[in-house]
Amino acid sequence: MLLLDRTLLKMAKGLWKWIILLVIVRFVNLITVTYFAETIGGYLGNLFDPSMGTAEALAAVKAAFAAAVVMFLSQLLQGELEYRCTAQARETMRGDIFGKILELDAGSIEKIGPVSAVTSSVDAVERMQVYYSSYLPSLIFSVIASVYLFFRLRNRYLTAAVILLCVSLVLLPMNNLFRSKIENLRKVYWKSLDDMTSWYLDGIRGMTTLKLFERDLEHAEGLDKRAQKLNEDINGFMKVNFTSFLASEGLIYGAVILVMILSVSRMAAGNMSVGDTLTILMLSYSYFGSIRQLMSATHEALTAVSAASKTEEILNTDTSRAYMPEAQKDPENMPGIRMDHVSFGYEGRKTALRDVSMFVPKGKVTALCGLSGCGKSTAASLMMRFMDPQSGHIYLEGRDYLSFTPEELRKNIVMIPQTVTIFSGTIRDNLLIADPDASDEKLYEALSQAGLKSYIDSLTDGLDSETGENGSHLSGGQKQKMGIARALLSDCEYMIFDEATSSVDPESEQEIWKCIGELAKTRTLMIISHRLSSIRNADVIYVLEDGYIREHGNHEELTKNNGLYYQLCEEQRILEGALV
Known about the structure:
With 580 residues, the chain is α/β, with parallel strands linked by helices.
């Protein structure tokens, strides 16, 4: 089956040398097989010839033995080349995929999702590498082998050579008739794999919750259904492949039997020698060896093409970001961050921010509050330039955001997210992410400001203590403090706290707010918090509702207005009182 996929061919850079070497080795093996068949055919044809002596017989045996040795060595070399090809294919493809993922900003990564990233870089690569080590060499070799054997057979029996060549040339187009069905099945198959992987990872990550609510068996049933669906889709592939295989084998054996009948009839009529007849019979069966290799590689090539369709989505994701060094400066030229009539919406969802204008003055504390889903985190992401607004402008100290590269911008602004990611390794490794050249003195200073120094001092290995997988050796509060320490090490003037205390215990929350209070003396802070009592001292508070700025001012001004902020404060006060 002719499966020439544009994505797979594009990713074959650096692999063609191995593919060509594999074709050459297979061709050398074919020449040796042909020579072996001709030697054995000639020897058996002359076996009962009185003129044949011991020297001729010994020469034939030596020639056959030499051919067998060459065939053995070529098979070993082919295996080594296939190994090296697959190794480089894995390295190259994973490098391309990981490189692309690293180019993506946070907004684009969310679109792809972690499951797609995992399946593309792990499962997809394992399927695609066979395309280069097996399918492409087999495809090229099958064409070369058919033409070569035609010229080797035509002098013995032209009719047989023509029949075998015609059948070999018909096989690929005939198999390609199944391509339309495969095109329909491949996306379904890969979607099922994605769905099952996602369900499985959700079960692993949420095992505690599932056990807590006794839903583990129910989740297992859901995984079983998805596994069955994936199995059905795989069987669909197998059925198409088997049908293709059955049609091909029927045509091959039909051609071999026809050539056998014609050759034996010609020999019986005295128009062909026994040696030529035996050679034709052996080579006619070997004639389709390359086609068989191609067909055996076709099923794996099908999954490779299917995997490539998913990988293509990642590789084709636009990672370019608007960069306009000469962008118009803020006409108001205000020191701080200013959003000017900004709107933004996610694909397939309602607009998150609608004509938002707000100002984060330098050296002050600005707060952003509102109900869940009102657009607070979207505003923070736009300020970090994880995404660009669909309309409006954002300015940093008078310069349009588009006049900065994202990397330049983030030397001025840092964010402490709701959930801080801790990587496997040591505490030192995690801190040096923010400043690779930081001295121990600077690390301890940041930890001290974040309220973690006493904890680090209590550890036997200090900064070289292991954090565990995903920071499992740290509590939720300690992880958030690590995030603050990282932010301090970045030396950024502007710091955004996006619900930084929403997932910590009350004691850690108080410590973090104390740290934020100290930072307010020297940094410009944007605080997003659901706890309204913690932002009452902010210099200015913006209240979001359904993507709109409903009101802004300080705590006293907003409570006097009896507006949305006042209602939220009252509801929270009543709720906290009821809980007490």
